[in-house]
Recover the amino acids of this structure.
C-alpha cells in the first residue's frame, strides 16, 4: 500500500486540499499565538472585553459552521463556500491592517473571521477525496492532512520570531494574513472542483439534519471533546500572555516555543496510524488529553525557568493525539454526511472556545493566568476520561 503522502502527491484533488490546508495553517500560525497579545497589550482591550470577543467568536463560528455543513450536504457547492470563507478572511485581515483599532479588532475577530469555516470545509473535501481509497488508507490520509495543517507552525513561526526580534510590530501580521487568505482563495478557485460524483445530496431537511446533529449521543461526545479542545484554545490564548507578562520573555520566544511544539507534533501525528493498529483510538484520545492537560497546568509555573522548554515534548505528544484523532472520530459519527461531520468539528471547537473563555474570565477574575491554565488542563483531562468511559464498551 502506498504511503498516505505518496497518495496525496499523486491525487490532484488531495494535493489542492493539502495546499489549502497548509495555507490555512500558515494563517492560523501567524495569528493564534499573538491574538491575545495584540488585543490586550497592543490595542489596550481589557481581559473581560477579550473574553467577550472569544465568546462572540464562538457563537458566530458554530452558527455558520453548522448551517453551512448542513447546506453543503444538501447540495450547496463546497467550492463556493470555501471561496466565500477565504473572502471573509481577506476582509477581516484587511480591516485590522488598514484600521488598527480596538473596534476593528473586535469586528474582525468576533464577527468576520469566525464566520469563515475553512477548516471544516477543508476536511470535508479531504474526506470526500479519500473515499476512493481503501479504508485503512483513508485514516492515514486524514492524519497526514492534519499534519500538513501543523507544518506551517514549524515553518512560519520561526520567520515571525526573526521578524519580531528585528523590530517588526505585531500589527505587521495582518497584511501577511491578507496575502495568505488571497493565496487560499486562488487555490480553491483553480484547484477545487465544482462538484464530485461521490458527494451526493443527503436528502435530509434542514430540521432533520439539525435533530441528528443534536442527538444526545452525539451531543455528549462533542461536548466532552470540547472540554479537551478548551485546553488547546487556552494554550493559544495564554502562551503570549504568560511568556510576556509573567515570565518576562520576548515575543520571539513565543514564536520559538509554539514552533517547537508544532514541529514535534508533526512526526507524532504521522505515527498515529501505526499506533492505531495496537491501541484503540478512544484510549489514545483519553491519554493525549491527560498529557495535554498536565503540561498546560505546568506552563505558568515553569514559564520563568529554563525548564519550560522541556514542556514541548508532552505538549507535542498530547497535542498530536487530541488534534488528529477526534477528526475521524467525529466524522465517523455522521459517516455519510461529510458536511455535517465537519460541523461537528466546529461544534467541538466552539464548545472548547466557550469553555476557554469561561476559564479565562473566571481564572483572571479570581487569581490569574495560573488558575486559567489549571482549570483548562483539568477540564481536558476530565473530558478525555469521560469520553473513554462513554465509549468503554466498544471492545478494546
Amino acid at each position: 500500500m502506498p504511503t498516505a503522502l505518496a497518495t496525496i502527491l499523486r491525487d490532484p484533488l488531495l494535493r489542492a486540499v493539502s495546499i489549502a490546508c497548509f495555507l490555512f495553517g500558515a494563517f492560523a500560525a501567524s495569528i493564534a499565538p499573538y491574538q491575545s497579545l495584540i488585543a490586550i497589550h497592543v490595542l489596550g482591550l481589557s481581559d473581560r472585553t477579550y473574553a467577550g470577543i472569544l465568546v462572540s467568536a464562538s457563537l458566530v463560528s458554530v452558527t455558520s459552521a453548522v448551517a453551512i455543513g448542513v447546506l453543503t450536504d444538501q447540495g450547496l457547492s463546497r467550492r463556493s463556500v470555501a471561496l466565500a470563507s477565504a473572502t471573509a478572511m481577506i476582509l477581516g485581515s484587511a480591516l485590522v491592517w488598514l484600521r488598527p483599532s480596538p473596534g476593528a479588532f473586535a469586528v474582525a475577530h468576533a464577527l468576520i473571521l469566525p464566520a469563515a469555516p475553512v477548516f471544516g470545509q477543508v476536511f470535508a473535501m479531504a474526506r470526500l477525496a479519500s473515499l476512493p481509497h481503501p479504508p485503512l488508507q483513508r485514516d492515514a490520509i486524514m492524519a497526514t492532512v492534519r499534519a500538513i495543517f501543523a507544518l506551517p507552525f514549524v515553518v512560519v513561526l520561526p520567520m515571525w520570531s526573526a521578524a519580531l526580534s528585528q523590530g517588526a510590530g505585531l500589527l505587521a501580521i495582518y497584511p501577511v494574513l491578507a496575502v495568505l487568505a488571497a493565496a487560499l482563495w486562488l487555490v480553491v478557485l483553480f484547484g477545487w472542483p465544482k462538484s464530485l460524483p461521490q458527494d451526493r445530496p443527503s436528502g435530509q431537511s434542514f430540521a432533520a439534519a439539525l435533530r441528528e446533529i443534536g442527538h444526545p449521543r452525539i451531543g455528549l461526545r462533542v461536548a466532552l471533546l470540547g472540554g479537551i479542545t478548551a485546553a488547546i484554545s487556552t494554550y493559544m490564548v495564554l502562551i503570549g500572555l504568560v511568556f510576556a507578562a509573567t515570565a518576562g520573555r520576548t515575543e520571539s520566544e513565543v514564536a520559538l516555543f509554539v514552533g517547537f511544539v508544532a514541529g514535534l507534533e508533526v512526526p507524532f501525528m504521522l505515527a498515529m496510524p501505526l499506533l492505531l493498529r495496537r491501541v484503540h483510538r478512544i484510549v489514545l484520545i483519553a491519554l493525549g488529553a491527560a498529557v495535554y492537560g498536565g503540561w498546560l497546568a505546568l506552563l505558568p509555573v515553569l514559564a520563568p525557568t529554563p525548564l519550560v522548554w522541556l514542556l514541548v515534548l508532552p505538549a507535542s505528544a498530547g497535542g498530536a493525539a487530541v488534534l488528529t484523532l477526534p477528526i475521524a472520530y467525529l466524522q465517523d459519527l455522521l459517516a455519510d454526511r461529510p458536511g455535517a461531520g465537519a460541523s461537528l468539528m466546529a461544534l467541538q471547537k466552539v464548545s472548547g472556545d466557550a469553555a476557554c473563555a469561561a476559564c479565562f474570565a473566571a481564572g483572571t477574575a479570581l487569581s490569574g493566568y495560573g488558575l486559567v491554565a489549571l482549570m483548562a488542563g483539568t477540564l481536558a483531562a476530565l473530558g478525555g476520561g469521560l469520553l473513554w468511559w462513554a465509549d468503554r464498551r466498544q471492545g478494546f
Summary: Residues 114 and 284 are 29 Å apart (CA to CA).
